[in-house]
Amino acid sequence: MLAQMGEPFDSPEFLFEVKWDGTRCIALIDADRIRLQNRRYIEMRERYPEFACLGQLPPGTVLDGEIVVLEAGKPSFPKLQQREHLVDPNRIAIVARRLPATLIAFDLLYDAGECLLRLPLEQRKARLAAVIRRLANPHVIASDYVVAAGVRYFQAAERHGLEGIMAKRLSSPYVLGARSPHWLKIKVAQTGEYEIIGYTPHEKDRDAIGALIIGERHGARWSYKGKVGSGFTDQERREFMKLLRAAAVLERAPRDGPKDGVWRLGGLRCVVRYFEKTKIGMLRAPVYKGIVRTG
What we know:
This protein is an alpha+beta fold. The protein contains 5 helices and 21 strands.
């Protein structure tokens, strides 16, 4: 079940919980094995030996949740990435001790073979809490939540530097494979100003940009901060192409930029909204919000 985008609101018909910044996981417990599948149905069981405890649950149990690596009580996406790409069992075992993962379960789809998909979320949450209590393992916890007070909950998430919150209708069923209005993701965003140092071509329109390349100057050196490919009108994409085609070529372009990048320096800065910086300073999910001329 997937969520639509939303804005902060209050409602006694909804619960509100943290939007955990991790990897979505469906945990399926069979009689002879455990499966951990991400949104692309890739099996993750071997990456996370700490979740062997799920084998204590009754066969026919299915959990929905998020795998995170916590740092000072908050999810760290860069630390999770260190776990995500490991394949060697010995290396996995070593890193699992240094960066232990937690499965934060937020829904129960099957309970010992009983299908709960049509039950209201409120009942599924109660059943989930009971399952997690019986399991009693620190690597698997149930996501906490509040009812009704969505605005204050969002403000608290913002103060604590979290990615955002989820709003879920208490009476809703679990709708497989659907992006449902019963679930809303409400993200905390940040804004910043960055130099425009090039563009990538549009796939279909040669007179329009596909994305802006943004960066920061450090003395004579430029660092690449990301591609901004959304937030534009079609007219703005064409206007940027005219400006950047006429701009000077950027000397010493960053080596880690996009392979199809066209590097230009026209004295332009843009305002972007983004949700987080990666460990190396890249912007996650930047969106164009406006332009500032600098010369």
